[in-house]
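pinned: reference chain
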Amino acid sequence: MWSYRNPVDVRFGQGSFSELCNLISGRSYALVTYGEPYFRGLTEELAKRAGEPVLIIDDIAPNPDIDHLRHQTARFTGLKTAPEVIVALGGGSVIDSAKVFAAARGNFDAMEAYLKKRASADTINPWPLIAVPTTAGTGSEVTCWGTVWDNANGVKYSLAHPALYPQYALVDPALMIGKSKDLTIQTGLDALSHSLESLWNRNANPVSMAHAVAAARGVLSTLPALAGDLRNPQLRERMARAATLAGFAFSNTKTAIAHSLSYPITLRHGVPHGIACSFSLPMIIRSVAGHGGICEEGLRAIFGCDAAGAAERLETTLSKLGVATDYRHYGIEEAEWRELIESAFEGERGQNFIGERQELLVAAGLEEKASAA
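pinned: its C-alpha coordinates
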Protein backbone atom coordinates (compact mmCIF):
# COMPACT_ATOMS: atom_id res chain seq x y z
CA MET A 1 0.00 0.00 0.00
CA TRP A 2 1.09 3.58 -0.61
CA SER A 3 -0.32 7.09 -0.45
CA TYR A 4 0.65 10.51 -1.75
CA ARG A 5 -0.53 13.92 -0.53
CA ASN A 6 0.51 17.49 -1.22
CA PRO A 7 -1.96 20.31 -0.47
CA VAL A 8 -0.01 23.25 -1.95
CA ASP A 9 -1.78 25.31 -4.62
CA VAL A 10 0.97 26.01 -7.19
CA ARG A 11 0.84 28.94 -9.60
CA PHE A 12 3.63 28.68 -12.18
CA GLY A 13 4.73 30.84 -15.07
CA GLN A 14 6.74 33.76 -16.38
CA GLY A 15 5.36 37.01 -14.93
CA SER A 16 3.19 35.28 -12.34
CA PHE A 17 4.66 37.48 -9.58
CA SER A 18 1.97 40.00 -10.55
CA GLU A 19 -0.62 37.58 -9.12
CA LEU A 20 0.82 37.75 -5.60
CA CYS A 21 -1.51 40.59 -4.62
CA ASN A 22 -4.53 38.44 -5.50
CA LEU A 23 -3.19 35.56 -3.39
CA ILE A 24 -2.70 37.83 -0.38
CA SER A 25 -6.33 38.82 -0.96
CA GLY A 26 -6.50 41.86 1.31
CA ARG A 27 -4.96 40.13 4.32
CA SER A 28 -2.41 41.83 6.55
CA TYR A 29 0.95 40.27 5.78
CA ALA A 30 4.53 40.12 6.96
CA LEU A 31 7.16 39.94 4.22
CA VAL A 32 10.30 37.84 4.58
CA THR A 33 12.88 38.58 1.91
CA TYR A 34 16.41 39.81 1.21
CA GLY A 35 17.67 43.37 1.58
CA GLU A 36 19.41 43.66 -1.80
CA PRO A 37 18.26 46.37 -4.25
CA TYR A 38 16.54 43.84 -6.53
CA PHE A 39 14.38 42.57 -3.69
CA ARG A 40 13.68 46.09 -2.43
CA GLY A 41 12.29 46.79 -5.89
CA LEU A 42 10.02 43.75 -5.70
CA THR A 43 8.96 44.80 -2.19
CA GLU A 44 7.97 48.25 -3.44
CA GLU A 45 6.07 46.74 -6.35
CA LEU A 46 4.20 44.42 -4.01
CA ALA A 47 3.39 47.22 -1.55
CA LYS A 48 1.83 49.28 -4.33
CA ARG A 49 -0.48 46.42 -5.23
CA ALA A 50 -1.21 44.76 -1.87
CA GLY A 51 -0.57 47.57 0.62
CA GLU A 52 2.33 47.94 3.01
CA PRO A 53 3.35 44.84 4.97
CA VAL A 54 2.95 45.06 8.74
CA LEU A 55 6.57 43.90 9.05
CA ILE A 56 9.51 43.34 6.71
CA ILE A 57 12.31 41.00 7.72
CA ASP A 58 15.05 41.33 5.12
CA ASP A 59 18.24 40.38 6.96
CA ILE A 60 18.05 36.69 6.08
CA ALA A 61 21.38 34.86 6.08
CA PRO A 62 22.26 31.59 4.33
CA ASN A 63 21.61 28.51 6.46
CA PRO A 64 19.33 30.27 9.01
CA ASP A 65 20.89 30.09 12.47
CA ILE A 66 18.73 29.53 15.54
CA ASP A 67 20.12 32.48 17.52
CA HIS A 68 19.53 34.91 14.65
CA LEU A 69 16.03 33.51 14.11
CA ARG A 70 15.25 34.13 17.78
CA HIS A 71 16.14 37.82 17.46
CA GLN A 72 14.18 38.14 14.22
CA THR A 73 11.09 36.48 15.72
CA ALA A 74 11.10 39.04 18.54
CA ARG A 75 10.21 41.72 15.98
CA PHE A 76 6.70 40.29 15.73
CA THR A 77 5.95 41.12 19.35
CA GLY A 78 4.26 44.46 19.86
CA LEU A 79 2.96 44.81 16.30
CA LYS A 80 -0.22 46.87 16.24
CA THR A 81 -1.63 44.55 13.60
CA ALA A 82 -0.67 40.89 13.58
CA PRO A 83 -0.08 39.38 10.15
CA GLU A 84 -2.75 37.11 8.77
CA VAL A 85 -0.28 35.55 6.35
CA ILE A 86 3.50 35.33 5.95
CA VAL A 87 4.89 35.98 2.46
CA ALA A 88 8.31 34.48 1.73
CA LEU A 89 10.03 36.07 -1.28
CA GLY A 90 13.48 34.61 -1.88
CA GLY A 91 15.51 31.43 -1.85
CA GLY A 92 15.38 28.43 0.43
CA SER A 93 16.81 30.27 3.42
CA VAL A 94 14.04 32.88 3.16
CA ILE A 95 11.31 30.24 2.92
CA ASP A 96 12.79 28.21 5.80
CA SER A 97 13.02 31.33 7.95
CA ALA A 98 9.44 32.27 7.09
CA LYS A 99 8.32 28.83 8.27
CA VAL A 100 10.02 29.45 11.62
CA PHE A 101 8.28 32.82 11.99
CA ALA A 102 4.93 31.30 10.98
CA ALA A 103 5.30 28.46 13.49
CA ALA A 104 6.42 30.78 16.29
CA ARG A 105 3.73 33.46 15.81
CA GLY A 106 5.97 35.73 17.88
CA ASN A 107 6.66 33.08 20.56
CA PHE A 108 10.06 31.64 19.72
CA ASP A 109 10.25 29.55 22.89
CA ALA A 110 7.13 27.61 21.92
CA MET A 111 8.46 26.99 18.42
CA GLU A 112 11.86 25.94 19.78
CA ALA A 113 10.28 23.48 22.20
CA TYR A 114 8.45 21.86 19.31
CA LEU A 115 11.54 22.00 17.07
CA LYS A 116 13.60 20.16 19.69
CA LYS A 117 10.82 17.62 20.31
CA ARG A 118 10.04 18.85 23.81
CA ALA A 119 6.45 19.67 22.82
CA SER A 120 3.80 18.11 20.59
CA ALA A 121 2.48 19.37 17.27
CA ASP A 122 -0.71 20.75 18.81
CA THR A 123 1.31 23.32 20.82
CA ILE A 124 1.86 25.46 17.71
CA ASN A 125 -0.64 26.86 15.23
CA PRO A 126 1.31 28.36 12.31
CA TRP A 127 0.22 31.39 10.37
CA PRO A 128 -0.58 30.67 6.70
CA LEU A 129 2.29 30.98 4.22
CA ILE A 130 2.72 32.09 0.64
CA ALA A 131 6.07 31.03 -0.82
CA VAL A 132 7.61 32.80 -3.81
CA PRO A 133 10.93 31.10 -4.60
CA THR A 134 13.58 33.08 -6.46
CA THR A 135 15.97 30.14 -6.91
CA ALA A 136 15.37 26.75 -8.50
CA GLY A 137 16.55 24.33 -5.89
CA THR A 138 15.20 23.77 -2.42
CA GLY A 139 11.60 22.90 -3.24
CA SER A 140 10.66 24.34 0.15
CA GLU A 141 7.70 26.07 -1.48
CA VAL A 142 5.89 22.71 -1.66
CA THR A 143 7.05 21.01 1.55
CA CYS A 144 5.99 21.29 5.18
CA TRP A 145 9.47 21.50 6.69
CA GLY A 146 12.39 23.87 6.96
CA THR A 147 15.99 23.60 8.05
CA VAL A 148 17.27 25.37 11.17
CA TRP A 149 21.00 25.45 11.92
CA ASP A 150 22.65 25.75 15.33
CA ASN A 151 26.17 26.69 14.30
CA ALA A 152 27.38 27.28 17.86
CA ASN A 153 26.66 23.65 18.77
CA GLY A 154 27.23 22.06 15.37
CA VAL A 155 23.65 20.81 15.08
CA LYS A 156 21.03 20.96 12.34
CA TYR A 157 17.28 20.70 13.07
CA SER A 158 14.32 20.06 10.80
CA LEU A 159 11.13 21.99 11.52
CA ALA A 160 8.22 19.88 10.27
CA HIS A 161 4.50 20.46 10.76
CA PRO A 162 1.48 19.71 8.52
CA ALA A 163 0.35 23.33 8.76
CA LEU A 164 3.67 24.54 7.30
CA TYR A 165 2.76 23.51 3.78
CA PRO A 166 2.37 26.91 2.08
CA GLN A 167 -1.15 27.82 1.03
CA TYR A 168 0.29 28.92 -2.30
CA ALA A 169 3.57 28.46 -4.12
CA LEU A 170 3.97 31.16 -6.72
CA VAL A 171 6.80 30.08 -9.02
CA ASP A 172 7.86 32.81 -11.46
CA PRO A 173 10.98 31.80 -13.43
CA ALA A 174 11.51 35.45 -14.40
CA LEU A 175 12.55 36.14 -10.80
CA MET A 176 15.46 33.70 -11.20
CA ILE A 177 17.11 35.17 -14.29
CA GLY A 178 19.62 37.37 -12.45
CA LYS A 179 21.13 34.62 -10.31
CA SER A 180 24.87 33.94 -10.47
CA LYS A 181 26.44 30.87 -12.04
CA ASP A 182 27.61 29.47 -8.70
CA LEU A 183 24.20 29.90 -7.07
CA THR A 184 22.44 28.48 -10.12
CA ILE A 185 24.61 25.35 -10.05
CA GLN A 186 24.39 24.90 -6.28
CA THR A 187 20.61 25.22 -6.14
CA GLY A 188 20.13 23.12 -9.27
CA LEU A 189 22.18 20.30 -7.77
CA ASP A 190 20.15 20.54 -4.58
CA ALA A 191 17.07 19.87 -6.70
CA LEU A 192 18.82 16.93 -8.36
CA SER A 193 19.69 15.53 -4.95
CA HIS A 194 16.08 15.89 -3.80
CA SER A 195 14.84 13.90 -6.77
CA LEU A 196 17.41 11.09 -6.49
CA GLU A 197 17.10 10.95 -2.70
CA SER A 198 13.39 10.29 -3.06
CA LEU A 199 14.15 7.15 -5.11
CA TRP A 200 16.51 5.26 -2.73
CA ASN A 201 14.03 5.96 0.00
CA ARG A 202 11.91 3.71 2.22
CA ASN A 203 9.00 6.16 1.76
CA ALA A 204 9.10 6.13 -2.06
CA ASN A 205 5.88 5.56 -3.96
CA PRO A 206 4.88 5.57 -7.64
CA VAL A 207 3.76 9.22 -7.62
CA SER A 208 6.91 10.46 -5.91
CA MET A 209 8.93 8.39 -8.41
CA ALA A 210 7.15 9.99 -11.37
CA HIS A 211 7.95 13.45 -10.03
CA ALA A 212 11.54 12.43 -9.26
CA VAL A 213 12.19 11.06 -12.74
CA ALA A 214 10.77 14.15 -14.45
CA ALA A 215 12.70 16.43 -12.10
CA ALA A 216 16.06 14.67 -12.44
CA ARG A 217 15.80 14.45 -16.22
CA GLY A 218 14.91 18.12 -16.28
CA VAL A 219 17.91 19.13 -14.17
CA LEU A 220 20.39 16.95 -16.08
CA SER A 221 19.21 18.20 -19.48
CA THR A 222 18.99 21.85 -18.44
CA LEU A 223 21.55 22.80 -15.80
CA PRO A 224 24.73 22.42 -17.91
CA ALA A 225 23.20 24.59 -20.65
CA LEU A 226 21.85 27.12 -18.15
CA ALA A 227 25.25 27.44 -16.47
CA GLY A 228 26.53 28.83 -19.79
CA ASP A 229 23.47 30.94 -20.61
CA LEU A 230 22.26 32.39 -17.31
CA ARG A 231 19.78 34.88 -18.75
CA ASN A 232 17.95 32.40 -20.98
CA PRO A 233 14.26 32.55 -19.91
CA GLN A 234 13.37 29.18 -21.42
CA LEU A 235 16.17 27.42 -19.55
CA ARG A 236 15.24 29.21 -16.32
CA GLU A 237 11.65 28.03 -16.77
CA ARG A 238 12.76 24.43 -17.30
CA MET A 239 14.95 24.55 -14.17
CA ALA A 240 12.17 26.11 -12.10
CA ARG A 241 9.78 23.38 -13.21
CA ALA A 242 12.32 20.65 -12.40
CA ALA A 243 12.99 22.07 -8.94
CA THR A 244 9.28 22.25 -8.12
CA LEU A 245 8.75 18.68 -9.30
CA ALA A 246 11.68 17.59 -7.14
CA GLY A 247 9.94 19.33 -4.25
CA PHE A 248 6.79 17.33 -4.95
CA ALA A 249 8.88 14.14 -4.99
CA PHE A 250 10.61 14.57 -1.65
CA SER A 251 7.65 16.32 0.00
CA ASN A 252 6.33 12.80 0.61
CA THR A 253 9.56 10.89 1.18
CA LYS A 254 11.92 13.39 2.84
CA THR A 255 15.58 13.16 1.89
CA ALA A 256 17.96 10.32 2.66
CA ILE A 257 21.63 9.47 3.06
CA ALA A 258 23.20 12.18 0.87
CA HIS A 259 21.55 14.90 2.93
CA SER A 260 22.43 13.15 6.16
CA LEU A 261 26.06 13.18 5.00
CA SER A 262 25.88 16.79 3.87
CA TYR A 263 24.92 18.55 7.10
CA PRO A 264 28.19 18.01 9.01
CA ILE A 265 30.14 18.73 5.83
CA THR A 266 28.49 22.14 5.62
CA LEU A 267 28.90 22.79 9.35
CA ARG A 268 32.52 21.64 9.59
CA HIS A 269 33.94 22.57 6.20
CA GLY A 270 31.68 25.37 4.95
CA VAL A 271 30.74 23.53 1.76
CA PRO A 272 27.58 25.09 0.23
CA HIS A 273 24.57 22.89 0.82
CA GLY A 274 23.85 22.14 -2.84
CA ILE A 275 27.40 20.89 -3.37
CA ALA A 276 27.59 19.08 -0.02
CA CYS A 277 24.47 17.03 -0.77
CA SER A 278 25.31 16.25 -4.41
CA PHE A 279 28.99 15.37 -4.75
CA SER A 280 28.35 11.99 -3.08
CA LEU A 281 25.46 11.03 -5.39
CA PRO A 282 27.51 8.86 -7.82
CA MET A 283 28.95 6.93 -4.87
CA ILE A 284 25.46 6.36 -3.49
CA ILE A 285 24.14 5.22 -6.87
CA ARG A 286 26.87 2.57 -6.99
CA SER A 287 25.94 1.42 -3.50
CA VAL A 288 22.30 0.72 -4.42
CA ALA A 289 23.05 -1.35 -7.53
CA GLY A 290 20.79 -4.37 -7.59
CA HIS A 291 18.26 -3.10 -5.05
CA GLY A 292 15.48 -3.21 -7.63
CA GLY A 293 12.02 -1.73 -7.13
CA ILE A 294 11.30 1.97 -7.44
CA CYS A 295 14.96 2.87 -7.01
CA GLU A 296 16.18 0.83 -9.96
CA GLU A 297 13.16 1.66 -12.10
CA GLY A 298 13.60 5.36 -11.46
CA LEU A 299 17.36 5.39 -12.09
CA ARG A 300 16.93 3.49 -15.36
CA ALA A 301 14.23 5.94 -16.46
CA ILE A 302 16.55 8.87 -15.70
CA PHE A 303 19.88 7.60 -17.01
CA GLY A 304 18.86 4.83 -19.43
CA CYS A 305 21.34 2.35 -17.99
CA ASP A 306 22.29 0.34 -14.91
CA ALA A 307 23.66 1.83 -11.69
CA ALA A 308 27.30 1.66 -12.78
CA GLY A 309 26.53 3.53 -15.97
CA ALA A 310 24.31 6.02 -14.16
CA ALA A 311 27.05 6.82 -11.66
CA GLU A 312 29.57 7.35 -14.45
CA ARG A 313 27.22 9.61 -16.40
CA LEU A 314 26.46 11.68 -13.31
CA GLU A 315 30.16 12.03 -12.52
CA THR A 316 30.71 13.38 -16.02
CA THR A 317 27.91 15.92 -15.59
CA LEU A 318 29.19 17.05 -12.21
CA SER A 319 32.71 17.41 -13.61
CA LYS A 320 31.41 19.62 -16.43
CA LEU A 321 29.74 21.79 -13.77
CA GLY A 322 33.01 22.08 -11.86
CA VAL A 323 31.96 19.84 -8.99
CA ALA A 324 34.51 17.33 -7.65
CA THR A 325 33.22 13.97 -6.44
CA ASP A 326 36.34 13.14 -4.40
CA TYR A 327 35.68 13.86 -0.72
CA ARG A 328 39.30 14.94 -0.24
CA HIS A 329 38.67 17.95 -2.45
CA TYR A 330 36.53 19.38 0.38
CA GLY A 331 39.21 19.02 3.07
CA ILE A 332 37.85 15.73 4.40
CA GLU A 333 40.40 13.12 5.47
CA GLU A 334 39.76 9.40 5.04
CA ALA A 335 39.11 8.76 8.73
CA GLU A 336 36.55 11.56 8.87
CA TRP A 337 34.88 10.35 5.67
CA ARG A 338 34.45 6.90 7.19
CA GLU A 339 33.05 8.43 10.37
CA LEU A 340 30.65 10.64 8.38
CA ILE A 341 29.34 7.69 6.37
CA GLU A 342 28.86 5.50 9.42
CA SER A 343 27.16 8.22 11.47
CA ALA A 344 24.95 9.28 8.55
CA PHE A 345 22.89 6.11 9.03
CA GLU A 346 21.92 7.12 12.57
CA GLY A 347 19.72 10.13 11.83
CA GLU A 348 16.20 10.16 10.42
CA ARG A 349 17.41 10.97 6.91
CA GLY A 350 19.91 8.12 7.02
CA GLN A 351 17.22 5.73 8.20
CA ASN A 352 15.15 6.62 5.12
CA PHE A 353 17.89 5.11 2.95
CA ILE A 354 17.24 1.65 1.49
CA GLY A 355 20.93 0.82 1.26
CA GLU A 356 23.34 -0.70 3.75
CA ARG A 357 26.33 0.78 5.55
CA GLN A 358 28.71 -1.87 4.21
CA GLU A 359 27.57 -1.30 0.62
CA LEU A 360 28.20 2.42 0.95
CA LEU A 361 31.62 1.92 2.49
CA VAL A 362 32.52 -0.38 -0.41
CA ALA A 363 31.28 2.19 -2.94
CA ALA A 364 33.36 4.81 -1.11
CA GLY A 365 36.46 2.68 -1.53
CA LEU A 366 36.84 2.30 2.24
CA GLU A 367 36.01 -1.41 2.41
CA GLU A 368 36.55 -4.41 0.17
CA LYS A 369 33.49 -6.15 -1.21
CA ALA A 370 32.85 -9.37 0.65
CA SER A 371 33.64 -12.40 -1.48
CA ALA A 372 30.95 -15.02 -2.10
CA ALA A 373 31.14 -18.03 0.18
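why pinned: Strands lie at 9-12, 29-32, 55-57, 85-90, 129-133, 145-150, 155-160, 168-171. The longest strand covers residues 85-90.
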